[in-house]
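Homework help board

Subject: predicted structure for assignment chain

Our instructor gave us this sequence and asked us to write out the predicted structure in token form, then describe one feature. I got the tokens but I'm not sure how to describe them. Can anyone check?
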Amino acid sequence: MNYATAPDGVRLAYADEGAGPAVLCLPGLSRNMDDFLPFLHGFRDRARIIRMDFRGRGGSDWAPPETYSIPHEAGDVVALLDHLGLERAAILGTSRGGLVAMLLAATVKARLSGVCLNDVGPVISPEGLDNIMGYLGRAPGYKTYAEAEAAMPAAHPGFHDVPVANWAAHVRALWREGPDGLELRYDAKLRDAIAPAFDTTKPAPDIWPWFDALSGLPLALIRGAASNILSAETASQMRQRRPDMGFAELSDRGHVPFLDEPAAMAVLDTWIEALP
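My token output:
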């Protein structure tokens, strides 16, 4: 594992593997770089794949909770690009990572060479936010990885025909084993930091301008058909605004696809081909 340093001194963990156009992988809210192992295994012979842990997650330093914000995380991405000496990189953003990618397009577009959004768009479905607040910052309650693996199919009703190996990798990416059971691989204070933004009783900010800022960049979208974060209606609006956007909807996946599904890999393949 390698480290870069954010402007405020926080260490940011990253991995840098493969050869080809640079693709920076940004994970979901409480997730980490291990979520992109399927993408790494499938595409490292065609892309330089840089996987990053946001502050407070995975191998990165925990930080003051008030800095667990999309603007701070976007700044950390720029710091990592500077550390690597990269003028531009494409971004594969899962959920929260996709929101960060869109903000970067709206603020420092010259640093981007393309964006692929994994099950996220400019409108976040309230039921998905409620679901996240149901578990965020709380220990999972499983004693062992084996117990967690067995529980995954029932805990993810929108997912079907998932290989056992995928669930095994999934629980190891989410949690680590501790003396009293599985533990979080992120700062539990993340819950308090983002709770105000997840208040579904208040109007959500309009971030469609962030999406529109992606104009001119190679763009792709992958959606789980059972997603509780990215609605079919929002995905349809995104496609209307960007008819050239690569798109795959996975009938047997929810939030979020693993990125090893054949339809997802086909979209990623075409997207990488389009990168400068």
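Reply (TA_rk): Your tokens look well-formed. For the description, you could write something like this. The CA atoms of residues 90 and 114 lie 4 Å apart. That's the kind of observation they're looking for.
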